[in-house]
Amino acid sequence: MTDPTIDLIAAAVFGVAVLHTFVAKLFERLAHRYPRHAGLFHLLGEVEVVFGFWAIVLVLVMALIAGGGAALGYAESRNYTEPLFVFVVMVVAASRPVLQTVLRAVAGLARLSPLPTPLASAWLGLAVVPLMGSLVTEPAAMTLAALLLAPLVFKPGVPERIKYLALGVLFVNVSIGGTLTSYAAPPVLMVASTWQWDSTFMLATFGWKAALAVAINASVATVLLRPHLLAAPAGAEEAQGPPVPMLVVAVHLALLAGVVLMAHHPVAFLALFLLFLGFTQAYERYQSPLILKEALLVGFFLAGLVVLGGLQRWWLQPIVAGLEPLALFFGALGLTAVTDNAALTYLGSLISGISDESKYMLVAGAVAGGGLTVIANAPNPAGVALLKRGFTDESIGAGGLLLGALGPTAVAAAAFLLL
Question: Which entry of 9, 121, 367, 418 is 20 to 30 Å from 307 by CA?
């Protein structure tokens, strides 16, 4: 689509969608005030619905202006591999055998720690699990960390401001925690092949700095959470039901590994997902309810972002291309708050003759800012879907997340700029 009118409309709809994410919590309050229309307000208050909803609006407007064929052609031209992958990996990673394995591993490490078990478990959930994202991909790490931390941190009795701080730390740490390899973080993946960045380069250039920032952020958050964790020292709960046989666990882990390895091949990972669904039905007594609804909402959100984001290049790319390295770092960090960080780095990969310093600054700024908003990093909607019930009105305010993420974002930015 190159129609200037459609480009302007797409930018306006995108701006409305971003604004909608900041006022989504208001709709939840309206649902309580006007119960006759509670269903509609609850729908508009679901952050995961926002971008999918406005993407549908955009396609309908495009159909009115350019014709149904052109609108449908544009929608079908988008690449939906990432939304599909996030949907699949969320469901598989959150299955009882996988989650039980992670919870037991965390519990074992927590018992070996000199810290009280609740503190050690929270620190591991905020630090080690996000760093695992470099191996199992960021969406899987976000899913596991959210399910681990939900009964520890995101529960009644913990002040909202502390929850938002913990949420900001989790989102930032997942965003930078995937930079130890070249395939796990979406913004890195967008440039790795074009710029020939392999996992050795990522570990030496980004990874160790990210690991240090992750440890600092998690430690600060754990210290602030300490009174609340020790007041009700309930560890992360394992899924209820009969013990899961090791063979069933092994099959689930193998399917998760296969999905991760085939992350860029939707035909392959969807086939594995169908096999997974069949296996869970065959051994239903060892399963908990699959998080299909939550994962579908996240996939809908990301697919909407793909549709809306595809028409923003006309104003985003000149900004990215026109900045000097240091300005590019802060520009990427700021722009990430209003658009997906992978979209930013992809635009950077299209710039011919970009210097090595600018490459570093672009990616560093994009991943450092990945926790500022729900749309800043692809795994964030997964965290929102799994943790929102722990917040007032069962919704997460964009303003609260932004404030909670400022501190950990500053730590990540300092690590990438000064080390």
Answer: 367
